[in-house]
Fold this protein.
Amino acid sequence: MSELVNLYGLDRPKMEALFEQQGLQKYRGRQLMKWVYHQGRTDFAAMTDLPKSMREWLQQNTCFDLPRVETFKESKDGTCKWALDVGDNNFVESVVIPDKGRNTLCISSQIGCILDCSFCSTGKQGFSGNLSAATIVGQLILANRKLADRGEKVTNIVFMGMGEPLLNFDAAITASNIMMEDLAFGLSKRRVTISTAGVVPAIYKLAEVTDVSLAISLHAPTDELRDQLVPLNRKYPINELLAACREYVDKLGKQRKLVIEYTLIAGINDQHEHAVALAKLLHDVRCKINLIPFNPFPASGYERSTKKDIWSFQTYLMKQGYATMLRTTRGADIDAACGQLVGQVQDRTKRKTRYLARVKSADEQSAKIGQDSLYEMVSNT
Ligand code: SAH
């Protein structure tokens, strides 16, 4: 039996293609999208302007699947956090941060991450796979359902949850297309931001297929320092990265800016010399700078910069003419640091997995040595 097509993962061209494959006209796909995203209907029976045979085919071959919510937490300050079950004992996280009338959704694109940036807890959890476009969009649908309770919805999306979106290129682009599509969520391209640690060839490819906003996780003004914080820098050093970024923002036009993300880590990259070098480095890049105080997590080996250092760093950059935002800590009462909620869920589930793996291996050994079971042995450990 072939797998059901999850319709939440199809952008307009893909939806149109699905209908064409069934011998129908493309506009039928657009009709379906309006039902789903404008009318909020996923029951095919209600879609009376679609041919009945088509509705039956859809019923049998497609679905609207969302990730299962493993845990949901809401902070006193309105920040919401989800740990979502994406199958095979894997979990990803999404967060909504309300601020000044905006609701920014921080979305995951992969299960874990291969990049292993030294200050990021996602990297420490390893990599278990890519998310589908449907699962990326699913995070937005779940967030909007929750916000509807407050009469609100997601206004901005940043691909700054778990994973490197440009290493899951097709799914990330398809999902962002759906977010920016008038027939679906209709968010402005200024309000959907893909964040990357700097996968240079993918940034050039990005320019050919989309005009989504782009953020770069820079974190250091020199290759020497960035090599330590973002190991991907050893493959794509800063000058190559900024060249790709310049080309991308040039294509977007004069009104648009690159976002530079810079996590401030005490004594590592937060001193005056770093601010001076950063201002110099970015002098010919049309950008704004987002400063993120480091979010500590167990055994990270790093500390958050002092308030004084953060203030000095920001003030210097602003004096040099850079629009510089400081990201404030939100949702501290629900495990603020990125990736921590999933870390907790995984601790629990992986314990079960490890336990089951031990039982399985004990069973295999038991069979080999002709003993009833070694179950007793593992159940005591
Ligand atoms: N791989 C992509 C997207 C995920 S990380 C990227 O690198 O851009 C998104 C942002 O989270 C990064 O800019 C990084 O600075 C930030 N981040 C990760 N761990 C952090 C931590 N412990 N404290 C503060 N910011 C962190």
